[in-house]
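Long-time lurker, first post. I've been practising inverse folding by hand and with some scripts of my own, and I keep getting stuck on stretches where the structure tokens seem ambiguous. Below is the full token string for one chain I'm working on. Before anyone asks, I'm not after the true native sequence, just a reasonable design that respects the backbone. If someone could post their per-position residues I'd love to compare against what I wrote down in my notebook.
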């Protein structure tokens, strides 16, 4: 086919058959998406689809490993051996989620080194939520309850994402997120039911500080979300930012009642007509400041990731040397 095209002579004619092939590939891709089908790594996909996935999956992976830092801060200070073991397991899970997600992004042709370099250079985003400090032990419980709760709400629909390697990673991640959310809620219930007044105040204070940033995790309103329309069209996102945020508010208000804490929003009220809770305005200026690098802990978080990368250089070098030796040992000597 290409030989025939080259025989045609002028440049435009030479391009025409390739263009026609791409049109056909695009038609098949769109048809598969419209049928609710999945795209595998080796399938043809439009460049923009690939780039959108690398952007979202790598931001998600970075969020997991940066997300280890605020809670990791409390591992040495957990109040009991049981809570320490649970927190260790949770933080370790998050490292694992990062690994699944970097691996899913790599199937799209971008190396993990490139992705991490973008993070370390401050060129890549990660979730705004991890730029807030964990001031007390109650923050660890509230992260489990609200932050992991918001993460589950956002991530369950991603198990049906049109890009199959991402969808498969998300199925595993969501199972673990559900344990994370429960451990947080359980830690808070213990403080609220069996704790002192000071501990109950600590929980309320943590809820007051984490509530609004948790609502920001779902991203900007649909009306100003740059990528939503195209990502929904491609079946990468299945539910919009605002709809997920609303689902989260509706579920969380009831959990707050059971816990015995109030949510810091005087406008929070059940709306009979909408069959949803109304809530007050979100401070989008704060959100934009945080994602632009000016949140309370952005510099500290990035510095911690860069230090971990640099301190781990000898481990990577040793692993590579070991792999090279193992490969050399298994290669039969030439006769
Ligand atoms: N923080 O057009 P939009 C976790 C950016 S991990 C920072 O709506 P999209 C956990 C967005 O990237 C939680 N940036 O974008 C881990 C875009 O910027 P660029 C992470 C945000 O992609 C450890 C711009 O704003 N979860 O929970 O359609 C321990 C416009 O937004 C944020 C995921 O990553 C934000 N909150 O939708 C515990 C899930 N929101 O790229 C818990 C997967 C928006 O144009 N990701 N931006 O420079 C997604 O579902 C989507 O990417 C989002 C945003 C809903 C987050």
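-- Answer (accepted) --
I ran through it position by position. Result:
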């Amino acid at each position: 086919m290409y030989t025939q095209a080259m025989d045609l002579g002028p440049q435009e004619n030479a391009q025409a058959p390739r263009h026609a092939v791409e049109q056909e590939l695009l038609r098949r891709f769109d048809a598969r998406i419209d049928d609710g089908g999945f795209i595998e790594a080796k399938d043809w996909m439009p460049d923009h689809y690939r780039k959108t996935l690398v952007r979202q999956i790598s931001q998600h992976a970075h969020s997991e490993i940066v997300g280890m830092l605020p809670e990791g801060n409390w591992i040495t200070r957990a109040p009991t051996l049981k809570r320490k073991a649970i927190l260790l397991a949770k933080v370790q899970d998050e490292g694992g989620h990062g690994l699944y997600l970097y691996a899913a992004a790599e199937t799209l042709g971008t190396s993990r080194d490139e992705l991490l370099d973008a993070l370390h250079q401050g060129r890549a985003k990660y979730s705004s939520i991890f730029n807030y400090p964990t001031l007390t032990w109650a923050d660890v419980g509230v992260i489990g309850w609200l932050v992991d709760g918001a993460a589950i709400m956002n991530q369950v629909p991603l198990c049906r994402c049109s890009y199959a390697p991402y969808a498969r990673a998300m199925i595993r991640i969501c199972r673990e997120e559900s344990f994370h959310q429960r451990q947080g809620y359980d830690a808070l219930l213990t403080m609220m039911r069996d704790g002192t007044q000071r501990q109950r105040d600590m929980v309320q204070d943590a809820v007051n500080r984490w509530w609004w940033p948790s609502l920001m995790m779902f991203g900007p309103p649909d009306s100003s979300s740059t990528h939503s329309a195209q990502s929904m069209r491609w079946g990468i996102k299945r539910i919009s930012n605002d709809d997920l945020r609303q689902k989260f508010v509706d579920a969380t208000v009831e959990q707050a009642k059971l816990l015995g804490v109030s949510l810091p929003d005087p406008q929070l009220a059940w709306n009979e007509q909408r069959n949803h809770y109304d809530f007050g305005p979100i401070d989008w200026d704060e959100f934009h400041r945080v994602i632009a690098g000016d949140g309370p802990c952005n510099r500290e978080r990035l510095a911690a990731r860069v230090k971990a990368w640099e301190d781990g250089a000898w481990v990577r070098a040793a692993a590579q040397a070991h792999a090279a030796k193992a490969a050399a040992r298994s290669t039969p000597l030439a006769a």
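A couple of notes from the structure itself: Residues 164-194 form the longest helix (31 residues). The pocket of benzoyl coenzyme A is lined by residues 55-56, 59-60, 63-64, 67, 94, 125, 127-128, 147-148, 151, 154-155, 216-220, 225-228, 231, 237, 241, 291 (CB under 6 Å). Happy to go over any region you disagree with.
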